[in-house]
Amino acid sequence: MSWKASFSKGITSFQAGRLEDALIQFNEAIKNNGENQYPIYDSRAAVYEKLNRGKDALRDAKKTIDLAPDRWQGYSRSARIFLKARKFDACVKMADMSLQRIKPDNVKRREEMEGLKEEAGKAMRAAEEQKRRMQNHMAKLPVEIFMEVFRILVEEDSRALIQLLHVCQYWRYIAWNIPALWETLALVRRRPAEKAKLWIDRSHGRIKDIHVGSGVLESHDGWETHLTRIKWDGVQACTVYKWDLEKFLKSINQTHMLSNIRFLDIEDEIGNTIDRTKLLVEDSKIQHLCLIYAHGYGSMALENLRHLTYLEIRKYAPPYTSFVPVLENNSLLETIILEDVDLVDTPTEPLQLSHLTRFEAIHPAWKEEFMGQMIMPQLQVLRVEGGATWISRGLSSLSTRGLGNLTELILCRCSATSESVIDVLKSAKTLQQIYFSQLYNVSNNVVEALAPEPPRARKGAPSPPPPNPADLLCPVLSYLSILHCPDVRTGSLVRLLRARNPPLPSSPAPLEEDSLTEPETTAAAPPPARILSLTVDGCENIEAEWLPWFRQNVKTFSCIYMSRKVAGYKR
């Protein structure tokens, strides 16, 4: 059989869509002395193209060009294959060579190649635009800029280092070789030894902040051995959970390095017996101290501290017999947080805490006059929660000394009179947030003080003027939360909102001709700030029919009488 017969059968099979049969026939045609016939290779290339066998199709297209370099078929076929392969430069080149060989009167073929060339050009421009958008332009920046940006991000949140390592290979390379980014070592339950080794290697041992979290002590992979390579003279912050830091430093003869620590956060467990008094050395530079369940600290050890700006003590069982000297020795304190702490001593003279901005006492056990002896002119946040001791005298003393910077007042389940709380409100002109919870027989009186009831006009007498905004307490109050206070009444809250949230004008009134005259020099008092959020959850005496009115007059309003769990108990 001659190659022409097999070739003809192959064309018929190709046109019928029987590609495998066509491929067999074209192969037979080549074997039957058709190895030098370019139509066979061009047709077989078309079959390979349909079968998505691009390499084989391109090989036959090249063979077609070799056999018939003056014919357009091989170049056209190559152009189509290159377009599918997204090799746009080669596609345009082959299309141009094909157009040079197509006769001018073959309009259909020329239009086909021109369209193919235009399509390749559009695809090429789109690919270039995509490449431009995906290109890492930051790689052109100096490495020093990268280092500074990365340093700022990691200083704000040490966890940002993990995110930087996963952005791209270039960022990973830079971050991998900046020791300053690896100065915070936070060990957790999962593979602490592996992480300690990596961080210490990357930072060259210059760890400044070390965290030993919950569950690390249960890991027995030898994580402590890696900590011996840390240059402890540069460690400035330690946050440890149940880990005996002093014992470890003693084992490596580095206990003298404790004087360099400025941030110390210790959390132990109930029944802890670890003696931690040696951590607070006499020449300590600790500025931030947080102790939770750290019963191994004696109150005398705290007297060694002179540079505290932050003091937080929680769940301390033994009574503090000398806490007043701690306050006297640290006049730069800005934050004091005490929870379940028994303070035995009481200051005999006023304590000057000129820098204190936040004071929190949760379930305090102190004498009534303790808080009253504290002078805190810069106080911004005052929180008292729980405790059996009355705090009325302390609140009144604070208001007498002035609370001109107080912005947030939180009172929960504490014993105080409404008069003492109102005294605080009278003194706190900058108060923005009030949070009361389970403050019985106090909250409603406070609400009435915030918006006093206007005097009633006598019969036949003219109506009295509305209250002067300058006379309202807490003129910048915007957030009011009163939770589980059964004494709060609907009328008090309505008067409060009518005084502080008057209806907003829908549109400005037109100016009259007489209003264009020169205004008087006497300036009216500015209106009080609007109440933006009002929460009265658990206040059972709020009348339900007034709830739509409250929601209409306050931007954020919540009144949940009881939870589903409590409602289930009621049933």
TrEMBL record:
Q: Where are the residues of the annotated region Disordered?
A: 504-527
Query: What is the native source organism of this protein?
Result: Crucibulum laeve
Coiled coil stretches, renumbered: 110-137
Q: Which PANTHER family match?
A: STRESS-INDUCED-PHOSPHOPROTEIN 1, TPR REPEAT CONTAINING PROTEIN
Q: Can you provide one Gene Ontology molecular function annotated for this UniProt record?
A: Hsp90 protein binding
- A Pfam short name: F-box-like
User: Where does the F-box domain start and stop, copy by copy?
Assistant: 135-185
Question: What's the protein called, per UniProt?
Answer: F-box domain-containing protein
**PROSITE patterns associated with the record:** FBOX
Please give the InterPro entries that the UniProt record associates with this protein: F-box-like_dom_sf (IPR036047), F-box_dom (IPR001810), LRR_dom_sf (IPR032675), TPR-like_helical_dom_sf (IPR011990), TPR_rpt (IPR019734)
| Keywords tagged on the record | Coiled coil, Repeat, TPR repeat
Q: Which residues form the signal peptide?
A: none
